[in-house]
Amino acid sequence: MNDVPDSKPDMRNRSLRRRDALTGDERRAKSLAIATHGAEALAAEIPGKCVAGYHPIRSEADVGLLMALLEKAGAELALPAVIDRETIVFRAFRSGEELVAGGFGTRAPGEDAGEVDPDILLMPLSVFDEAGNRIGYGAGHYDRAIARLAARGRKPFLVGIAFDLQEVPSVPAEPHDVPLDAIITESGFGRTENGD
Ligand SMILES: Nc1nc2c(c(=O)[nH]1)N(C=O)[C@@H](CNc1ccc(C(=O)N[C@@H](CCC(=O)O)C(=O)O)cc1)CN2
Ligand SMILES: Nc1ncnc2c1ncn2[C@@H]1O[C@H](COP(=O)(O)OP(=O)(O)OP(=O)(O)O)[C@@H](O)[C@H]1O
Predict the structure, then answer these.
(1) Ligand 1, atom 31: nearest CA belongs to which residue?
(2) 12 lines ligand 1 (CB under 6 A)
(3) Where is this region: Disordered (predicted)?
(4) Of 171, 173, 194, which Cα lies nearest the Cα of 183?
(5) Ligand lying closest to the C-alpha of residue 138
(6) How far, in Å, from the CA of 137 to the mean position of ligand 2?
């Protein structure tokens, strides 16, 4: 046996291969369960809060229904838009509003939508562990957005969104990585040790 730790890209590739192998029906059923768990856990504290979700790409969990439920519970919504290779911003959004190409295959509100600082980030994950360490797609977009919000004194509640099959025993954390406060999968909503 060897004790060499897995590289982040290897862990990401393996996890994304498992996620890609889900059927459309499985993804829809699991996304529905994620919406139910997320709405139940977050609805009470949501009125007036700004929640940034995402428009799914590749085989990501679809948080469209969760966003709509949170909007109904009183949330303002936002979606990320890529403005350059290193930077995403969050733009205000209402369910059903038209979106434009948002970079990297994503869809986002256009430039005329107001830029907002979210209170809650629903973050798509490639890989995660129980402690709330995560790997995204490797661009550092979310890490930098969180650092930028922190520099303005904002500390959004970070909620990872993934399927159970994306969990691993341990994700190697680097100094710039900010751990998740909570994780929602099809089996439930769980706060991590950071999210108390
Ligand atoms: N749905 C969704 N929207 C999002 C993100 C996301 O992860 N998911 N983002 C999260 O930051 C930002 C966009 N950044 C992205 C950065 C890279 C890739 C991507 O697919 N990159 C590589 C794959 C890398 C790999 O497989 O190792 C590619 O282009 O193929 C996608 C989005 C904001 N919006
Ligand atoms: N706060 C930051 N400031 C500057 N560079 C950063 C910051 N956070 C991450 N980066 C850079 O971004 C790159 C990708 O980081 P990492 O591998 O952690 O991506 P990731 O967590 O998969 O991406 P994401 O945050 O978009 O989900 C790295 O080269 C890293 O140095």
Answers:
(1) 104
(2) yes
(3) 1-22
(4) 194
(5) 2
(6) 9
Query: What interface predicted TM-score (ipTM) does this complex get?
Result: 0.94
56 in any annotated domain: yes
Atom of ligand 2 nearest to the CA of 123: 27
> Atom 12, ligand 2: which residue's CA is nearest?
140
Q: Rounded to two decimals, what is the model's pTM?
A: 0.96
- Is the residue at 78 inside a domain? yes
State whether the Cα torsion 18-95-80-82 is positive or negative. Answer: positive
Ligand 1 atom 9 nearest Cα: 141
**Structural domain total, the chain:** 1
Q: How far apart are CA 79 and CA 135, in angstroms?
A: 20
Q: Tell me if 55 sits within 8 A of 107, measured CB to CB.
A: yes
What CATH number should be reported for the domain holding residue 177?
A: 3.40.50.10420
In a domain, residue 1? The reply is no
pLDDT in tens, 61-107: 999 999 999 999 999 999 999 999 999 999 999 999 999 999 999 99
Burial of 130 (0-12, 13-18, 19+ CB in 10 A): middle
Residue-wise pLDDT tens digits, 156-181: 999 999 999 999 999 999 898 999 99
**From the CA of 143, how far away is ligand 2's center (Å)?**
5
